[in-house]
Amino acid sequence: MDVDEIAPGLWRWTGRRETIGRDVGCVYQEGPDGIVLIDALVPPEDGERFLRALDRDVANAGRRGVHLLTTVDRHERSSAALADRYGGAIVPRDGALPNGIAAIETGSPGEVAFWLPEHRCLVVGDATRSDRGRLVAHGASPAFATAVLMLDVERVLVSHGEPVLAGAHEALRAALA
User: Are residues 116 and 99 in contact, defined by beta-carbon separation less than 8 angstroms?
Assistant: First the structure.
């Protein structure tokens, strides 16, 4: 398990996804509406330590709540168990999203990316991956490319591969061209 603070109130962690045999990225964001967990996975290799830290964060957030989002259904991972643990809710991708987050259709069936405007961050599931820091698009539509290239993206957090924390807009432009 790796845990990295990306910016104040924005964290990314990885955990081993046994069904695919590799680590996957997950996102934690804290904002005015509470804690948002995107594509959440309790890391099987260090679940107890992870849950103790998350318990502290949730207690510190108070009554603002826990919201669980998935970029695509197969990324539900630990969302149901975490919703039960914290009395949170799994938020539909087409519903009202917390913390000013917006969903952007990727063009892949049933998949969205999440735009976190406070952090100028795009969170992507399977439609865009990172290969040694270079973004690679998989099934992203021209409409998705148009939508995300209009944003002032500073960071891209992907489920598969390393995050892009510098030059993200240019990396997106190259991947989606």
Answer: yes
Q: Give the model's confidence band at 114: pLDDT under 50 very low, under 70 low, under 90 confident, else very high.
A: very high
21: CB partners within 8 A, 6+ apart: none
| 39 close to 71: Cβ distance less than 8 angstroms | yes
Is 69 buried (19+), middle (13-18) or exposed (0-12) by CB count in 10 A?
buried
pLDDT value of residue 61: 87
Torsion angle of the four alpha carbons 147, 152, 157, 158, in this order, in degrees rounded to the nearest 10:
30
Is residue 45 very low, low, confident or very high in pLDDT (cuts 50, 70, 90)? confident
- Cα 73 to Cα 45, 118, 125, 126, 131: the distances in Å are 23, 25, 10, 11, 23
Strand order in the sheet with 3-7: 3-7, 10-17, 22-31, 34-38, 66-69, 89-90
pLDDT band at 20 (very low <50, low <70, confident <90, very high): confident
Q: Assess whether pLDDT exceeds 80 at residue 63.
A: no
Cα(35)–Cα(95) distance, integer angstroms: 17
What are the DSSP calls for 128-158, one per residue? EEEETTEEEESS--HHHHHHHHTS---EEEE
